[in-house]
C-alpha cells in the first residue's frame, strides 16, 4: 500500500485528510511504530484511530487515560468476587480433593483473569488498532510503564507467566498537551501535530458529516468558526462544536446564518461563560468580518 491509497482509505471512511496526516499514518504502519498525535481538543486525533481500525477492517481497543490510572487498570485484574465465590462453592460442596495448591492454580487461571486494554491488545487474535487516548492525563510513572510495554510487547502476570504478543498492534497515542511527555516516549513514536482546521478542511468535514446542511449555511458557519478561533478564549471550540452547530442549525431549517441566531445558539459552540461574553462583545465585529469575506468571495 502507498501513501495515496492510505489517504483514499481514510477518506472513504469519512476522514478528511491532508498530506501530513496520511503520510504519518502510512509511515507508522510501514515502520510498525506507534504514532503520537498531539494538538488542541477536538481536531480529530481520536477519530484517526477509529477510522484506521475501520479502514483496516480490524478491531479498535481503547485505553482512555486519566489521572491516577495505574498498571493494573491498563493490564489485567483478578476477578476477586468470582474467585471468592468459587472458593465458597468448593467449600460448600466439600469437593476439595487434591492439594490446596491445585485450588490456588485454578483460581489464578485465565478463567478468573479480567483482561484490560493492554493485555487485550496483546492477546488479540489479529493485530488491532490500540488507541492510548489522552496519555498526558496519566502520570509519568504510568508513562514509563507504557513505554516498557510498547518496547517489549510482552506482559508478565506473576501467577500465569509471561505473555508474548501474538500480533503487534498498530498503536495511536494521543495527547492534549496537558503536560509535557517524556523524551523517551517521544523517541519511541513517530510524531504528528494536528492544528485547528483551515476553512476548506472544516467545510469539507461539515459537508461530509452533516447531511441536511445547505452549502451557504455550511460556508457561513465555517467562516464564523475561523473568526471565532482568533479571539482569546478559555476553550477554543474544535470541530466537534462546529458539527454540533451545523446539525442544530440545519435541524432548525436555516439555510443561512442570521446574526440573532448566532447569539441565541452560542451555547452550542462555547461552553464557558467568559467565552460567551467575549464572543457576544465581539459579535458585530465577527459578523462584519465574516460578511466582508463572504462578499469579497461572492458567497
Ligand atoms: N479530518 C476529519 N474528518 C472528519 N471528521 C473529523 C475530522 N477531524 C475531526 N472530525 C470530527 O470532529 C470531532 C472531534 O474529533 P476527535 O477525534 O474526537 O477530536 P480530538 O480527539 O482531537 O479531541 C469528531 O466528531 C470527528 O468525527
Ligand atoms: Mg480525543
From TrEMBL:
SMART domains: AAA. Gene3D superfamilies: P-loop containing nucleotide triphosphate hydrolases. CDD domains: AAA (cd00009). It comes from the Bacteria. InterPro entries: AAA+_ATPase, ATPase_dyneun-rel_AAA, CbbQ/NirQ/NorQ/GpvN, P-loop_NTPase. Pfam families: AAA_5. GO terms for molecular function: ATP binding; ATP hydrolysis activity. Residues 31-198 form the AAA+ ATPase domain. PANTHER family: MAGNESIUM-CHELATASE SUBUNIT CHLD, MOXR FAMILY PROTEIN. This is ATPase.
Amino acid at each position: 500500500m502507498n501513501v495515496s491509497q492510505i489517504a483514499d482509505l481514510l477518506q472513504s471512511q469519512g476522514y478528511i485528510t491532508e498530506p501530513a496526516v496520511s503520510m504519518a499514518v502510512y509511515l507508522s504502519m510501514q515502520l510498525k511504530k506507534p504514532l503520537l498525535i498531539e494538538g488542541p481538543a477536538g481536531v480529530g486525533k481520536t477519530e484517526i484511530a477509529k477510522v484506521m481500525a475501520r479502514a483496516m477492517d480490524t478491531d479498535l481497543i481503547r485505553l482512555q487515560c486519566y489521572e491516577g490510572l495505574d498498571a493494573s487498570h491498563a493490564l489485567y485484574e483478578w476477578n476477586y468476587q468470582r474467585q471468592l465465590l468459587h472458593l465458597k462453592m468448593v467449600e460448600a460442596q466439600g469437593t476439595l480433593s487434591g492439594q490446596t495448591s491445585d485450588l490456588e492454580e485454578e483460581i489464578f487461571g485465565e478463567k478468573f483473569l479480567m483482561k484490560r486494554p493492554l493485555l487485550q491488545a496483546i492477546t488479540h487474535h489479529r493485530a488491532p488498532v490500540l488507541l492510548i487516548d489522552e496519555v498526558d492525563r496519566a502520570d509519568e510513572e504510568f508513562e514509563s510503564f507504557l513505554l516498557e510495554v510498547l518496547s517489549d510487547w510482552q506482559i508478565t502476570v506473576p501467577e500465569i507467566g509471561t505473555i508474548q504478543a501474538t500480533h503487534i498492534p498498530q498503536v495511536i497515542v494521543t495527547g492534549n498537551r496537558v503536560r509535557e511527555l517524556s523524551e523517551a516516549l517521544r523517541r519511541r513514536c513517530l510524531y504528528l501535530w494536528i492544528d485547528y482546521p483551515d476553512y476548506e478542511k472544516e467545510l469539507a468535514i461539515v459537508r461530509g458529516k452533516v447531511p441536511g446542511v445547505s452549502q451557504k449555511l455550511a460556508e457561513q458557519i465555517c467562516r464564523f468558526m475561523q473568526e471565532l478561533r482568533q479571539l482569546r478564549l478559555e476553550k477554543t471550540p474544535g470541530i466537534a462544536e462546529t458539527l454540533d452547530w451545523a446539525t442544530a442549525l440545519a435541524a432548525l431549517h436555516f439555510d443561512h446564518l442570521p446574526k440573532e441566531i448566532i447569539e441565541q445558539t452560542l451555547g452550542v459552540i462555547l461552553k464557558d461563560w467568559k467565552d460567551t461574553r467575549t464572543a457576544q462583545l465581539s459579535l458585530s465585529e465577527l459578523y462584519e468580518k465574516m460578511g466582508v469575506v463572504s462578499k469579497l468571495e461572492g458567497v
